[in-house]
Amino acid sequence: MDIENSNRFLTAFNRIDHRLRDIIGAKDFMPFYRLIDQAKKKDVLVRKYEDDLRSYADLRNAIVHHRTSFEYVIAEQHIDVVERIEYIEEKLAKPELVGQMFCKKVLAFQETDSLKQVLKVIRHRKFTQFPVFNKDQFKGLVTTVGITNWLATVMVGNQIPKEVPTLHDILLHEKNRVNYKFVSRYITIYEAEDIFKQGVERGSRFEALLITEHRKPHQKLIGIVTPLDIVKVD
Questions:
Q1: DSSP string, the chain
Q2: Mean pLDDT calculated for residue range 23-44
């Protein structure tokens, strides 16, 4: 039995225990399972790894309560288990923020801009969401779905009208006008993932999360998160 693996496992487990206590502000002793129950209400990462944490609690109890000497443990920790709990401990301790992963220069348009300008971007850069402003005031999010809705509405027979619309016109054809949500750069990427999931569950799918310093629409837009971005999050 590799005692080093056992000690690494217990060290990571104890750090997770302390982290859960910090999340809920526990000052008195609380069983690990109850810590999970309370912390998952406040931290999306605890919910994400709940099943793992409960399994590790069982394994920890087997190690600690049945150990007869420092050199002997009843349950052997495979290196994959040790590395997995250390990975989860690191994520809980220092979750990555959307401001760290998704802050970038955002390609935005004015509502008086022509649809032609957006179509060029779609062709060359494959973007599908476009923040639209009236000077500095945010007006909405134009998407490829909204463009398709506009096209389906204005076609006469098989003919596409020659007049090219502005983005103001396209915004009127977005099926779900509130298809975005402003978020702070300080939320975790896992909270962002949860926002997308909650939107789907409530029947109001978000096409993008728009990042500002403190999630205020009047603040400078410093990043954007799309559903495609979020599926890449581990």
A1: --HHHHHHHHHHHHHHHHHHHHHHT--S---HHHHHHHHTTT-HHHHHTHHHHHHHHHHHHHHHHT--BTTB-SS---HHHHHHHHHHHHHHHSPPBHHHHSB-----EETTSBHHHHHHHHHHH---EEEEEETTEEEEEEEHHHHHHHHHHH-BTTBPPSSPPBHHHHHTT-SSS--EEEEETTSBHHHHHHHHHHHHHTT---SEEEEESBS-TTSPP-EEE-HHHHTT--
A2: 96
